[in-house]
Every structure is written in C-alpha cells, then in structure tokens.
Amino acid sequence: MTRRGALIVVSGPSGVGKDSVLKAFMPGRRDIMLSISATTRPPRVNEIDGEHYHFISQDAFKDMIAKDEMLEYAEYAGNYYGTPRQWVEENLRRGMHVILEIELVGALKIRALMPEAVFVFLMPPSLSTLRDRLIGRGTETPSSISARMEAAKKEILQASAYDYIIVNHTLPDSCEKLSAIIGAAAQRASHLKDIIQEVTKDA
Ligand code: 5GP
C-alpha cells in the first residue's frame, strides 16, 4: 500500500529567501515535490510560466475559485495567489511529500483544512536584512517594497502560529533544518496511523 505523503507548508516574508532555500534543497530529493501556484501577478524577468507560477488572468483565477479548484488562495500586495488543488491531492495520494510555499493567510486556511500538515516559517535574521535583500533583488518597485515590508511585519508577528521557525542565516544551515523537519514529519505517529493496522493484521 502506498503511504500518503506529508504536506509541508513553508511561509516567510517576501525576500527572506524561500525560493533560494527551496531551490538549493529540492535537487536530489525525489520524494518531495514543490507545488506551483497560480497567480494574477505579472511575471518578473526570468520567471517562466508553468515553472515559477502559472501566470493567469483575474477572470481565470476567479473561474478556478468558482469551480473549487483552489485548495487555498489569498490576496498579497495587490495580486491573487492560489494553490491548484488537484495536483497537490494527486501527489500526496501517490506518496510524495508536497511543499506549498505560500503566505500566512493561505497557510492558516490550510491549517483549518488539513491540520495534519506541517507548518514552517522562514525568518529573516532582522527586518533590515530583509529590506536589503528586497532592494538587492532589483525586481521590486519602491511601492512594492513598502507593501512587502508592511506584509512582512504582520507575518513575522504571527510566526508563533507555525510548528517550526528556521532563521535563514545561511543556505546550507536552512536546508539542513528543513530536511530534518520533513524527515520528522514523515515519521509522525499521526502520519503513520495505518502502519499499526498493517503490522497487527495477522495477530
Ligand atoms: P511573490 O510575488 O514574491 O512571488 O510572492 C508573494 C507572496 O505570495 C509570497 O509570500 C509567497 O509565499 C506567496 N504565495 C505564492 N504562492 C501562493 C499561493 O498559492 N497561495 C498563497 N496563499 N500565497 C502564495
């Protein structure tokens, strides 16, 4: 019997380095898949449709909501972001661990919907490091940086709602911690309930 995969939700303020950590972490992990969100935000330079996001129109996004095709969605800094439901459910069913890289509101919706999921918050060492990273990225306008810093403060204040916090000092350290968390998530008794039945079936 294929055991259902674990759902891992990774949040953290824009600019904290979620993409870099996940990009460094994913290669070689054939047991883990990263969900690709849908968004109404326009692509940044170098972002590829279907790889970084599914870039869709507001109408297409609303249509997906109406058809109940979003596992969760939220508005963030003026754009909509959502997790396509079917892909996540299919991969969990076939035993893959699935990572959702989503913001706080969406994470709280997942918590209510799938309490067995594991919630990880990637924390910047300080707000000034975060601002420097956002500016250094060179992809955001000054108003987008302000909106993202405002959202960041709100998110950081709610970090205790998560199961784990990783302070993103260095990539290797954050990757190692994430790996340990996912390893532990897959071994939780609540996740392995069916093994009790399996082992005792001939008793
Ligand atoms: P960005 O525009 O920087 O790519 O993403 C902005 C924020 O949206 C990030 O905090 C990111 O985690 C979040 N986000 C990306 N995809 C989703 C999603 O499917 N659902 C929700 N709720 N947030 C998302």
Give me the Rg, rounded.
18 Å
Give the strand tally: 9
Shape type: globular
N-to-C terminal Cα separation, in Å? Answer: 19 Å
Estimate the mean pLDDT confidence: 94
Structure description:
- The chain has 203 residues and is an alpha/beta fold.
- Helices cover 43% and strands 20% of the residues.
- The chain is built from 8 helices and 9 strands.
- The protein has helices at 18-25, 58-66, 85-93, 104-113, 127-137, 142-157, 171-186, 193-200, and strands at 7-11, 32-34, 38-39, 54-55, 70-76, 79-84, 97-101, 118-123, 164-167.
- It has a 5-stranded parallel beta sheet, with helices on both faces.
- A hairpin with a 2-residue loop joins strand 5 (70-76) and strand 6 (79-84).
- The longest helix has 16 residues, at 142-157.
- The radius of gyration is 18 Å and the shape is globular.
- The two termini are 19 Å apart.
- The model has no long low-confidence stretch (mean pLDDT 94).
- The chain binds guanosine-5'-monophosphate.
- Guanosine-5'-monophosphate binds next to strand 5, strand 6 and helix 4.
